[in-house]
Design goal:
The complex is a heterodimer.
Chain A: E1 4-15, E2 18-29, E3 33-37, H1 44-51, E4 59-64, E5 67-68, H2 74-80, E6 82-84, H3 97-103, H4 113-118, H5 121-139, H6 159-172, E7 177-181, H7 189-204, E8 209-213, H8 217-223, E9 226-231, E10 234-239, H9 241-245, H10 248-255, H11 259-262
Parallel strand pairs in A: 3-8, 3-9, 6-7, 7-8
Antiparallel strand pairs in A: 1-2, 1-4, 4-5, 9-10
Helix pairs in contact in A: 3-5, 3-6, 5-6
Chain B: H1 2-10, H2 24-43, H3 46-49, E1 54-56, E2 60-61, H4 62-77, H5 94-120, H6 132-139, H7 144-164, H8 170-188, H9 190-199, H10 203-209, H11 218-252, H12 254-275, H13 278-303, H14 312-326, H15 339-361, H16 366-385, H17 387-393, E3 405-407, E4 411-413, H18 418-440, H19 443-453, H20 455-460, H21 465-491, H22 501-514, H23 519-533, H24 549-563, H25 572-578, H26 580-593, H27 598-601
Antiparallel strand pairs in B: 1-2, 3-4
Classes of the chains: A alpha/beta, B mainly alpha.
Chain lengths: 263, 608
């Protein structure tokens, strides 16, 4: 039995009477890739927002390595070791690509105003480390984000590269768990196939545990160890991709009720 | 950008349109704008008040200049066309002249109407400048009929000149622009040039250019015109090559170029005050004080994105703390510390004030934050004036007889010696520039930028946004308090009326006009606004304009927001932010052009 990293217990949230998520109950073990799927409005992103501290759950608990994350600010959650990307890519568009991955190491570094003013040895060393780690995570995506690109603003990147930079920015926070919100949305088939491979590498080579929201079933099938299916805030199925994909409730959620039953 | 320029040149000009092939509705609109502008400027009383100020004796005074530029500018702008790709560009011809004349004539008719009304009606109740003096100036003392006809003809003629500028080749336009700018600028800066020429022992040059009773002489104007022509023709090319050379070297060794530039500035900062006269030194001291404030606000607004409209509060804290600590006549507490000891107390108080105001305010965002800081700015001033605090601060009487600043007991800077104060200010400005530069390129600075870009994402990326913003607030507060402490020592007294809301606004305008987020931009803003126009209570180079200062501030701010929102010397990032759309459009066009290139097809901008 591997280490239980993330434990979601009876998690519910209501927005003014609407049950955005009710009684979500599942766990993520260290080194797993878990996909969360479901139709639009199923509560997937709300779920991510709750883990990362941006939305407070109405009831239930989120345990990370046995400790509750409830009541922590988003930056404290990130400091504990959970990083995320955003569905509608939210880079620091006017900062350079390198700065984007440097700034996200903020909670792993500690030099303050005095270090910067007096250019202490500790400050210079830390700047060097931040820069090196930044270039290392950017290098994960091949040559796309490095070289002359390092000092270009993030706003010049293509859509696919912005998604890649978002993942790099999450990697730079030195997390244990990365929450990927639709990582391949808007990519062409070739690009999403490549990213699927990289998600596997994120776990195998970098040792990250991954929770992913994804609509592209090909990607979900290829990388997921387990799949959780949400619909209207309810968990309707959990298990391997094959189990879930043949589950009638899941098919119904995606395709609707068969005609003879509906009548 | 360069892509579209090239295509411009390739366009074959279509033949000129007929002289009366006009968009008449547009002409009438512009003519009415011209008329309104002329009437407005007249009613601000600029023509009358500035009539004494001569530009070229006896041809032109600044009062008339305030009117005549309007028909020229509008007559020129009415036919200016933005040519985009795919549009037909016509040759310029008679049509432009007709348009210019029409706009000018309608404008002149507006002014003629005003002259007639001035003569027949009395509207001096709401319009304070509605008086005979204005009528006298506008009609040249020759009667209403003369004035009205003169202005219609003159304005039409000036509009014609504006339109004709389209027909001249670019180089002629540039020459004309350079000549008028040189003459107007030299004449406006007369008093400062007088002061400077004494310091440099160049009185002979000054006397050659200017008349004894003020204003350029005709021969002086001609000398300047020749100088301007020579500058454009000979040095213009040189300067361009020089800039290119500097840019090329910057590519190779950026450190070296910067070091040379810095060394030059440092030498100038040390040597220049020795040669400048009292007036100029005093002026530069004011510029420096506001530059110090603006650099502080630049960290708060430009880097961390906290729109602080009550920044004057920290200026007041610095000024009052220094006053209480050093002045023997401070009413309550009076430790009479030397200034250099007091500055440590000042820093401490600035930190306390920064945390005290910042802690509740910083949790708010955007507009709410701006309004609350606006309130705090006034609260500090009113507290200082209140009965409750007047035991320490002297209330409305203020604190007097503040001794000058002494520097670690080595030297004493007297407020009565502007040159010494200037050195003190330069020292602190240097500190402020160093602090801004180092912090911007550090972990803290990057966190500030991230907070400015997107606060929620910054927080999700592990940045404690409250702490970061509070740090920015406190650093800004300390820089402002330095300025306040020097201000107290320079003036020798502090009154709450020196710390009104207008100071906050002027500092913010300096930062915006200069270029938010960039040190050189802020310096340019301080020089232009405080140096030339004057600070809220300080005269600038154009002392005559002090009455119209706020009007010009406002006009400048509106124009900047429309045409150059990134400021005079923009921060690269900032201008990107503000021109995002154009930028993306350019990128898209480029990508379309290189469609077969795989990389470009995905919408990326190819490396330059």
């Amino acid at each position: 039995m591997s280490e239980r990293l993330l434990d979601i217990q009876n998690l519910s949230v209501t927005f003014g009477g609407l049950n955005a998520l009710s009684d979500l109950d599942f766990h993520v073990d260290k080194g797993e890739i878990v996909s969360v799927i479901g139709p639009n409005g199923a509560g997937k992103t709300t779920f991510f927002n709750m883990i990362s501290g941006m939305v407070t759950p109405t009831s239930g608990d989120i345990l990370f390595k046995g400790e509750s994350l409830l009541g922590l600010d988003p930056n404290q959650v990130t400091a504990r070791g959970i990083a995320r990307t955003f569905q509608n890519v939210r880079l620091f568009a006017n900062m350079t690509i390198l700065e984007n991955v440097m700034v996200s190491q903020h909670c792993r570094t500690k030099q303050g105003i005095m270090g910067a003013l007096f250019q202490t040895g500790g400050f210079k060393r830390e700047e060097q480390e931040i820069r090196e780690h930044g270039e290392k995570v950017l290098g994960f995506f091949g040559s796309r984000l490095v070289g002359y690109r390092l000092n270009q603003p993030a706003s010049v990147l293509s859509y696919a590269n912005r998604r890649r930079l978002e993942i790099a920015r999450a990697m730079a926070t030195k997390p244990e768990v990365i929450l990927l919100d639709e990582p391949v949305a808007g990519m062409n088939p070739k690009e999403s196939e490549e990213l699927t491979g990289l998600i596997g590498k994120l776990r195998d080579e970098w040792g990250f545990t991954i929770v992913m929201i994804e609509h592209d079933m090909g990607v979900v099938r290829d990388v997921s160890d387990r799949v959780v299916v949400l619909d209207h805030g309810e968990t309707i199925a959990q298990g391997s991709y094959d189990e879930v994909s043949s589950n009638p409730a899941v098919i119904e959620a995606y395709l609707g009720r068969p005609a003879e039953e509906a009548s | 950008m360069s892509g579209t320029m090239n295509t411009d040149e390739a366009i074959v000009l279509a033949p000129a349109r007929g002289a009366f092939d006009q968009d008449w509705r547009k002409l009438v609109n512009w003519g009415l704008i011209c008329a309104l502008a002329l009437i407005f400027v007249s009613l601000t009383d600029m023509p009358d008040k500035l009539d004494k100020r001569v530009i070229v004796e006896p041809l032109l005074s600044m009062g008339y200049l305030s009117l005549i530029w309007i028909p020229i500018a509008l007559g020129n702008l009415v036919t200016r066309e933005v040519v985009l790709e795919g549009m037909t560009q016509h040759k310029k011809g008679l049509r432009e002249l007709v348009a210019g004349v029409s706009v000018g004539a309608i404008g002149g008719a507006g002014l003629a109407l005003l002259i007639w009304l001035l003569d027949t009606r009395d509207l001096s109740d709401p319009l304070v400048n509605w008086n005979d003096a204005l009528l006298e100036v506008l009609s040249f003392g020759e009667g209403v009929g003369y004035g009205a006809i003169f202005w219609i003809l003159a304005s039409a003629g000036l509009g014609l000149v504006g339109g004709a500028l389209h027909l001249l080749p670019t180089i002629a336009n540039r020459l004309l622009f350079a000549i008028s700018l040189t003459i107007v600028l030299t004449a406006s800066l007369e008093s400062a040039l007088d002061d400077i020429s004494e310091g440099f022992r160049l009185e002979w040059l000054f006397e050659a250019l200017f008349e004894k009773k003020g204003g350029l002489s005709v021969q002086g104007a001609i000398i300047l015109a020749v100088f301007a022509i020579a500058w454009v023709l000979v040095l213009g090319g040189q300067a361009k090559r020089g800039r290119a050379a500097v840019a090329a070297r910057r590519e190779l060794s950026p450190m070296k170029v910067n070091t040379v530039g810095l060394a030059l500035i440092a030498v100038a900062a040390v040597v220049l005050p020795m040669f400048l006269g009292r007036l100029t030194n005093d002026l530069l001291t004011n510029v420096g004080l506001f530059l110090l404030l603006a650099l502080g606000l630049n960290i708060v607004v430009g880097l961390a994105g906290i729109l602080d409209l009550g920044y004057v509060a920290f200026f007041a804290v610095g000024g009052y703390t220094a006053a209480i600590m050093t002045s023997p006549s401070s009413p309550g507490l009076s430790p009479e510390l030397p200034w250099w000891v007091a500055i440590f107390v000042v820093v401490f108080m600035a930190i306390v004030a920064g945390l005290f105001i910042g802690a509740p305010v910083i949790r708010m965002r955007g507009d709410y934050l701006a309004i609350v800081t606006l309130g705090f700015g006034e609260i500090i001033r009113l507290t200082v004036r209140s009965d409750w605090a007047s035991g320490f601060t002297g209330g409305a009487q203020g604190i007097l007889s503040i001794p000058g600043a002494d520097i670690v007991g080595v030297a004493t800077v007297q407020g009565t010696d502007p040159q010494q104060v200037l050195y003190l200010v330069i020292g602190f400005v240097a500190i402020a520039i160093y602090v801004s530069w180092r912090l911007e390129n550090s972990r803290i600075g990057r966190a500030w930028m991230a907070v400015r870009e997107d606060e929620s994402v910054a927080e999700a990326m592990g940045i404690n946004t409250v702490n970061s913003k509070l740090q920015a607030f406190v650093v800004g507060a300390i820089l402002a308090s330095f300025s306040g402490a020097i201000f107290a020592a320079k003036v020798g007294s502090v009154f709450e009326s020196s710390f009104k809301i207008l100071v906050s606004i002027v500092i913010l305008v300096i930062v915006i006009v200069g270029g938010m987020g960039r040190i050189a931009g802020v310096a340019a803003g301080a020089l232009v606004l405080v140096g030339i126009l004057g600070g809220p209570n300080q005269p600038g180079l154009l002392a005559e304009f002090s009455e119209f200062k706020l009007l010009i501030y406002g006009a400048l701010l509106i124009w900047m927001m429309l045409k150059r929102p990134e400021g005079l010397i923009p921060n690269v990032r900032r201008s990107r932010e503000l021109h995002q759309e154009e930028f993306l459009q350019d990128a898209w066009l480029k990508a379309q052009a290189n469609d077969d290139d795989d990389e470009a097809a995905s919408g990326e901008v190819a490396p330059a």
